[in-house]
Write a structure and sequence with these properties.
With 367 residues, the protein is α/β, with parallel strands linked by helices. The chain has two domains: 5-47 and 274-364, Alpha-Beta Complex (Aspartate Aminotransferase, domain 1); 50-271, Type I PLP-dependent aspartate aminotransferase-like (Major domain) (Aspartate Aminotransferase, domain 2, 3-Layer(aba) Sandwich). 39% of the residues lie in helices and 16% in strands. It has 14 helices and 13 strands. The strands form three sheets. A seven-stranded mixed sheet has the order 2-8-7-6-5-3-4, sandwiched between helices. α3 (50-59) packs antiparallel against α11 (260-270), α4 packs parallel to α11 and α12 (273-296) packs parallel to α14. The structure holds pyridoxal-5'-phosphate. Belongs to the class-II pyridoxal-phosphate-dependent aminotransferase family. Histidinol-phosphate aminotransferase subfamily.
Length: 367
């Protein structure tokens, strides 16, 4: 029993911590094997890009200094690329920090936060941490049911989280329905549109969401450098909103919330379109490779617009996850998302995918 539990604020007393994917080194230690494949945290399988590595090298002599707390250069680069004003941008220590800043800026314990069943695990954690009431709306075919979500929004609602595509289901909302939902929100309700996987979405169906915060000033779009840009280890993401909301988020954040290395790397990553294109191409090929295998193994999967796919193993998934671990393959069980028969698999390199498929085939046939 934690001796300080009673002193913690009410929400924190009930808090269940986020469970991250198992680190490669930990499994290597446990099994004493050299090669471990990690397809558990939707990381970029390409490794650090050359332009990012060079930017980090160039920054190393400067590390005795504080970073630029305004993130001027990165905001200028984002502004030019995304066609939004620098005043609309909030930089964060990962886009997780953007979600947290919105929560801390706007949500108090009396208020409600609406999000979908099977939505990203950080939403319930952040809601619980401030002690606000979570309204979890049942999903429709694993995706967000916007009609049902809209009905849950009342006078006490301050915030709605939408993940598009959603993690861990990979589901994508229809862009017109999504815009209609956002347009229908009352003025006292903010909406975080979490687009951590935006870059992986087929351009034919993805939203032109960056224009929305001007039309709908209560909207905050959260994006990240962790996934398609391959910078998960550095922690950098950003919010795009109306200048008024960005002003408030920037008051709440720590003055030096993004490290000098992260700022420099993100700016370099933004300019490396070859890396991004290669990432997206590798992802489509890998998605085809995995789903072909699932078809052959007669396992249903949820069609995904992200860099991962959740597969239904048609039995309790935890023992399958554990058997895969013993073969040196780390994937993600999603029972904590109310999906006890699914495993979420991140798309890896062709070779990593093949090793996973082989291991899964063996585990399912009892080898
Ligand atoms: C990975 C992820 C994020 C953010 O990750 P950061 O590394 O904090 O930028 C946000 N939302 C969803 C749905 C994610 O899967």
């Amino acid at each position: 029993m934690n001796k300080f539990l009673e002193l913690a604020i009410a929400g924190v007393q009930q808090l269940v911590p986020y469970v991250p994917g198992k680190p490669v080194e930990e499994l290597q230690r446990e099994l004493g094997i050299a090669e471990v494949i990690k397809l558990a945290s939707n990381e970029n399988p390409l490794g650090t890009g050359a332009k990012v590595a060079a930017a980090i090298q160039a920054t190393l002599p400067e590390l005795t200094r504080y970073p630029d707390g305004s993130g001027f250069a990165l905001k200028a680069a984002l502004s030019a690329k995304l066609k939004v004003a620098p005043e609309q941008i909030t930089l964060g220590n990962g886009s997780s920090e953007i979600l947290e800043l919105v929560m801390r800026t706007f949500v108090t314990p009396e208020l409600e936060v609406v999000f979908s069943q099977h939505a990203f695990a950080l939403y319930p954690i952040l809601t619980q941490a401030v002690g606000a009431k979570a309204k979890v709306v049942p999903a429709k075919s694993y995706g967000h049911d916007l009609t049902a979500m809209r009905k849950q929004i009342g006078p006490q609602t301050r915030l709605v989280f939408i993940a598009n595509p959603n993690n861990p289901t990979g589901t994508l909302l229809d862009k017109d329905e999504l815009e209609k939902f956002i347009a229908s929100l009352p003025a006292h309700v903010l909406c975080v549109l979490d687009e951590a996987y935006y870059e992986f979405v087929d351009p034919a169906v993805r939203t032109e969401s960056l224009a929305w915060p001007i039309r709908y000033p209560n909207l905050i779009i959260a994006r990240t450098f962790s996934k398609a840009y391959g910078l998960a280890g550095l922690r950098i993401g950003y919010g795009i909103s109306s200048p008024d909301i960005a002003d408030l988020l920037n008051r709440v954040r720590q003055p030096f919330n993004c490290s000098m290395l992260a700022l420099a790397a993100a700016e370099a990553a933004l300019g490396d379109s070859d890396y991004l294109n290669q990432t997206v191409a590798l992802n489509s090929a890998g998605m085809a490779q995995l789903t072909e295998a699932f078809k052959e193994l007669d396992l249903p999967w949820i069609p995904s617009s992200g860099n991962f796919v959740s597969v239904d193993v048609k039995q309790a998934a935890l023992p399958i996850y554990e058997a895969l671990l013993r073969k040196g393959v780390i994937v993600r069980p999603v029972a904590n998302y109310e999906m006890p028969k699914h495993l979420r698999v991140s798309i890896g390199t062709e070779r990593e995918n093949a090793i996973f498929i082989n291991a899964l085939r063996e585990v399912l046939s009892g080898v």
